[in-house]
Each structure stands twice: as C-alpha cells, then as structure tokens.
Amino acid sequence: MICVVGEILFDVFPSYIRLGGAPFNFAFHLKNLGFPVRFISRIGNDPDGKKILGLLEMYRFDLNDIQLDDIHPTGTVRVKLDEYGVPQFRITSNVAYDYIEFIPEVHRELIRQAELVYFGSLVQRSQQGFENVQKIIAGKTSSAVGFYDINLRPDCYNDRLISESLLRANAIKLNQEEFEELKRLMMFGKNSRSFVQHLLDAYGLNIISLTKGHEGSDLYTRNGNFSIDAAKPEMVADSVGAGDAYAAMLAAGLIKNMPPEIIIQNASAFASSICEIKGAIPGTEAFYEPFQPMFADGE
C-alpha cells in the first residue's frame, strides 16, 4: 500500500478550474495505475470541500482519510500560464491543509502498513503542519520507501523543514531550480555532482531524481547514474502537473524494483503525456491504459 500525505486543492486557471495539489495528483496517478493508495489530507467544511469529497468518492478514495476543518477554507491556487504553457502559481495561505492533524490511533497503523510514504514541502509550511506531518511520516518502517517530493514554492519552506524532511526520506525528487536552491540554502560551493554525492551521503538517500525540463532528467543511485532526454509531447496544452506525473511513475518503478534506466524512461514518457492535456489529471481512465500493463498486479 502507498500512503500519501499532503494537500488537495483547486487550481484556478483564468477560464477553468481543476482539482489539484501535488500529493493528490501523485495519489491519483498511482491509483489509476492499479496501486492501492491511501491519501491523508484536510479540506474546509465549505462548498469547495464538499465538491472535493464528491470527487474523491467518485474516484474511489477512502473518505475516512480526509479531515474536515470548520474554521479554515479549502485550499486554492491561482494559476497563470505563460506563452509556453508553463505555470506560475499564487497559493492561498492559511487554509485547511495547513492544519492537518496527527491522529495516533489511525495514522500509526496506516503508515506502518505502507510500502511507500509520500510527502512534500507545501503541507508543512505552517508550524502545526510541519510538526504533525513529521509525526505522521515518522511511523514508516525501515523497509518502506520515504519519498520526499521537494516541490519548493516561494515563501512556503524553510531550512528546518527541508532538513528534517530529507532525514525522513530515502528517495527524493526535485527540479533544477530546486536543486540550485538547496545548494544555496546549504551554502554548498562545490560543483553539482559533488552536491549530489553530499546529499546521498549526508542524508542516507538511495535515489535522487532530478528533472530539467526540456533538457531531460537524471537519476542518481548508489549503484550508478542514469540520464535521459526529455520525451517530446505531440502537442503541449500546459505543463501543469508534469512533475507530479514524473514522481508517480518514479515511485511505481521503485515499488516494482524496475531497473533505473526503465524507471527514468517510463517517468519521462508519462510526464510528457500529461503535458498534452489541460491541468494535472486526465478526465478519463483510458488515459492510463498504455501504462497499466507494466504494473499488472499493482502490488
């Protein structure tokens, strides 16, 4: 079972609205690829929250994992696309997912059963969110994958959040901008390859996935490094959620113990396919059919 901890929200585009949030996108993809997924999140007890509950029920998620907040609203993000379809985000602050609660009698057993535990940075931006998410993910077993999708958003992270999260992880995913920001935060003056080795050694990581947009992606492991050129979509609607799609396919490959060169190839292809649709998640299950055979049992 895969356990995902993090935000679910509405992405508000200039002319349409889509369900989003990196952790939800990640969970949605893996569920549609056939994996058992539990998704822990928190939404407002408001009209947006009620819409989300209805959608999650339709998508067959366990609603018992979704907390309702009577004080804070459901999360939203204003999304503006540039001429190349690259998104810029304006994230609403002080929303329900900032106050996710740790429920020991529920979360300890759930995390203990997980084969992979996913978490990011945004859900930890508040002090309460940071403390409670850290308590939740602390319960993973030593054999489970701790998957930290770094996803740094402006004014939504700090040194301690990143450091503590890296210590909980053995696999991380980040893009080139986030990689450079980590170098800056850690005041690391040596070259990028040395920084990769530093991260592997200092935090006990096994996997570092680095995406570089149109320049492709790299996968660093303790047994070697792998690179691939970016897959070219037939047409680009936007690139919203491409990184989340990449992360989902990376996690699926890790769970299935696929060779790194196959994992990176599948992740690139899947992320490219997401760029061909509007928003981060497909509107039909048929979208996943070309990718499902490689994960036939989903276990």
From TrEMBL:
The keyword Phosphoprotein does not apply. Belongs to the carbohydrate kinase PfkB family. Keywords: Kinase, Transferase. One of its GO terms (molecular function) is kinase activity. This is Carbohydrate kinase PfkB domain-containing protein. Coiled coil: none annotated. Pfam families: PfkB. The keyword Kinase applies. Residues 19-283 form the Carbohydrate kinase PfkB domain. SUPFAM superfamilies: Ribokinase-like (SSF53613). It comes from Candidatus Desulfatibia vada.
